[in-house]
């Protein structure tokens, strides 16, 4: 009976954690876009994670959760630097010039980086032919998507798009390091330590690039501050903590599927609330990227049927858009 109840509890925790990563993180791209309208990218991200991590650490200590050892803090520093400085920091920086939906679509390449790095790590798993096919399809989708943005800002967007791609690599690397680090602490304590270390790193980057001196502090808007508060509560406490727990409770391939849902949520919210442009080229590029991501995690026999369904969906979206 106890085993059955524990299994059911674990199942519900998995569902809740995946829902948080899928839906909440999809909305954070919009919140980031609003926050960086008037707030400096790296400094605001650093403040976000230091506040979230410090308050979470205090709550965990008050509940008697065992503190991390010095070795575990070093592991958290590596993970926090990769995931939050390299991963989140570059995404926030890129969203100064990229729309939230477009950024999320580029982040949809995350399962590709997970597959590659999982193969390259010691004793990793060699990618299947369909994985290689998915990587090729995904990169083709990125090229198509960036080109479809138009000719007026292509050069600037290529730099920002490259930053998002590098961010994805950093995020996948930090995630796998966190999952396979020996002797790590509890997922919640790991999350708080990673946020604190990553937040400090983001503040240092902000200082190095001179954000305190280039920011017009008098022009900071209330809605940017509100968006930062949303990122602290929903993006960090709920979303990031759920993600760190999932890294231990599930497989990297399954956890990386958040990239399927996040772009859809981000594109819809960006279009509905910020009036971000969505054209047929964006939809075709999105379909190609998601097709490449899907091919990696689907059973080998599903490849041909996935291609057909992806092509049908791309045509349907483009037809619907032309009709509006």
Could you explain how this protein is built, in words?
The protein has helices at 2-35, 41-62, 70-94, 100-107, 110-120, 129-147, 154-180, 187-208, 211-214, 222-249, 252-255, 258-273, 280-297, 303-323. The protein has 324 residues and is mainly alpha-helical. The chain has one domain (18-323). The longest helix is centred in the first third of the chain and has 34 residues, at 2-35. It is globular, with a radius of gyration of 20 Å. The protein starts with a helix and ends with a helix.
Task: Summarize the structure in short.
With 324 residues, the chain is mainly α.
Low-confidence stretches: none
- Helices and strands, in order, run as HHHHHHHHHHHHHH
Largest sheet: none
Helices, by number, come to: 14
In terms of DSSP E residues, the strand content is under 5%
Structural class: mainly alpha
Helix % is over 70%
Please give the domain count.
1
Give the rounded overall mean pLDDT. Answer: 83
User: What overall form do the CA principal axes indicate?
Assistant: globular
Using DSSP, what is the number of strands? 0
Q: Termini separation (Å)?
A: 56 Å
Spatial extent as radius of gyration: 20 Å
Q: Which terms would index this structure?
A:
globular
Secondary-structure map:
Blueprint: H1 2-35, H2 41-62, H3 70-94, H4 100-107, H5 110-120, H6 129-147, H7 154-180, H8 187-208, H9 211-214, H10 222-249, H11 252-255, H12 258-273, H13 280-297, H14 303-323
């Amino acid at each position: 009976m106890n085993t059955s109840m524990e299994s059911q509890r674990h199942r519900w925790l998995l569902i809740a954690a995946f829902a948080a990563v899928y839906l909440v993180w999809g909305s954070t791209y919009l919140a980031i876009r609003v926050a960086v309208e008037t707030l400096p990218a790296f400094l605001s991200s650093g403040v976000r994670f230091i506040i979230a991590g410090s308050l979470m650490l205090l709550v965990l200590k008050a509940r008697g959760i065992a503190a991390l050892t010095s070795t575990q803090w070093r592991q958290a520093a590596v993970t926090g630097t990769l995931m939050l400085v390299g991963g989140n920091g570059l995404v926030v920086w890129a969203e100064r010039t990229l729309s939230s939906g477009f950024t999320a679509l580029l982040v949809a390449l995350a399962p590709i980086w997970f597959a590659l790095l999982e193969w390259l790590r010691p004793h990793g798993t060699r990618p299947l032919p369909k994985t290689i096919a998915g990587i090729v399809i995904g990169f083709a989708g990125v090229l198509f998507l960036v080109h479809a943005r138009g000719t007026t800002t292509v050069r600037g967007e290529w730099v920002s798009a490259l930053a998002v791609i590098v961010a994805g690599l950093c995020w996948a690397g930090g995630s796998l390091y966190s999952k396979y680090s020996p002797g790590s602490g509890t997922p919640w304590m790991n999350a708080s330590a990673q946020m604190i270390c990553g937040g400090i790193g983001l503040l240092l980057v902000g200082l190095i690039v001179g954000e305190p001196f280039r920011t017009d502090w008098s022009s900071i808007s209330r809605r940017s501050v509100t968006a930062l508060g949303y990122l602290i509560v929903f993006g960090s406490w709920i979303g990031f903590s759920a993600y760190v727990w999932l890294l231990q409770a599930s497989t990297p391939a399954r956890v990386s599927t958040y990239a399927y849902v996040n772009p859809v949520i981000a594109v819809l919210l960006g279009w509905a609330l910020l009036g971000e442009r969505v054209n047929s080229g964006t939809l075709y590029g999105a379909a190609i990227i998601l097709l490449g991501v899907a091919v990696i995690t689907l059973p080998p026999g599903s490849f041909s049927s996935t291609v057909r369904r992806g092509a049908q969906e791309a045509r349907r979206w483009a037809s619907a858009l032309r009709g509006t």
